[in-house]
Design a protein that fits this description.
six-stranded mixed sheet; Cytidine Deaminase, domain 2; about 35% strand; five-stranded mixed sheet; about 270 residues; Ubiquitin-like (UB roll)
């Protein structure tokens, strides 16, 4: 199989030493994928090429269309379309279809049942959370190349990476990551997830359905994101920033001088040394 192109060099004028000079920076590739569910178009997603089956599986799970991978009879990805046939063709379908899933956020089509409670005895040392976040950035090849990607990763309690996934959108990262876990029978209750994306309620809801007991992000958490995590019994951590991490602002780069994290829910799962 020919590797898919995920970045391209595009001509640009770059400010360098007080002058504009010709450059050809790497830019992340944005592709479209039409999701056709039981013969009806459900949505069109904008995403980084690759892992389309994982994306579709994770998306359908996160939105409540399926509860297990066995609910999918087949996924056929050809060109810019993914045709999905569910085992139960009588499953509920949203009235309004053919919407777009954009890189900056998702849209809920159908939420299905109420969110489950997370049952896990997983606990982590705080240093493990920092180690996982550092590894997420160290292994993020697309971000290093283009500075235009979000990332998410599944980690063991020892901060060993199970998978690191990058995409143009934070929602896409989670959908691909959840799909990766589902298709490989990974027990999410014994792992934790680290992300670069803001944890709003719909992001937390997806991860709750997957059963992750601990979620950590390098950035912010919303009020409804916290409420959702609290209702599910999830540990939600924001602003995970280790010493030396670079934080890019509009006009400058700030270097973190001491470790920082904010635990919004479930602090009992995070241990001090």
């Amino acid at each position: 199989m020919t590797p898919q192109t995920t970045s391209v060099g595009i001509p640009a004028m770059q400010l360098q030493n007080g002058r504009f000079v010709a450059a050809k920076p790497a830019v992340i590739v944005e592709s479209e994928l039409r999701i056709i569910l039981n013969g009806k178009q459900l949505a069109t997603a904008s995403l980084l090429p690759g892992m389309e089956k994982e994306f579709v599986t994770g998306y359908l799970f996160g939105q409540g269309f399926i509860k297990t991978p066995e609910d999918i009879a087949s996924i056929i990805v050809e060109g810019s379309s993914a045709e999905v046939t569910l085992s139960d063709k009588t499953a509920p379908f949203p009235v309004s279809t053919s919407y777009r899933i954009v890189s900056g956020g998702g849209r809920t089509a159908f939420t299905g049942d109420r969110l489950p409670q997370i049952h896990s005895h997983l606990t982590l040392q705080k240093d493990v959370v920092f180690k996982a976040m550092n590894r997420l950035f160290d292994m993020g090849a697309m971000y290093k190349k283009t500075e235009g990607a979000h990332a998410a990763g599944i980690f063991t309690p020892e901060a060993e990476p199970v998978c690191i996934i990058e995409d143009i959108g934070r929602h896409n990262c989670l959908d691909k990551t959840i799909g990766y876990a589902l298709l490989r029978n990974i027990d999410c209750s014994q792992h934790f997830l680290v992300s670069t994306g803001r944890m709003a309620s719909e992001m937390v809801a997806k991860l709750c359905r997957a059963g992750f007991p601990v979620i950590a992000t390098k950035t912010a958490v919303t009020d409804r994101g916290r409420e959702t995590a609290l209702a599910c019994g999830m540990t939600l951590i924001g602003f995970v920033r280790d010493t030396g991490m670079k934080i890019h602002t509009d006009m400058s780069v700030r270097i973190i001088k001491e470790p920082l994290m904010k635990i919004y829910t479930g602090p009992e799962r995070i241990r001090l040394p």
